[in-house]
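seq:
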Amino acid sequence: LVCRPKQKLQHQSGKSVDVVLKEKTDWLLLYKIMAEAGWIRYAQKGEGHHFECCGTNRYLRAKAEGKTEMI
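struct:
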């Protein structure tokens, strides 16, 4: 988890998290675990490691559309 302390970002609120794994094969398992826990994946290029929950705009939009990831 990395963010600048003076900025107001979702990371500081606990509503988003960035996860980095050593092995690419673990991504499918991580995605499954996070989706089952209610998190959505923000799948924009360069942000595939980013997950959100708990009322962020992307989270609410994804849930309203029945999705577990937003592109």
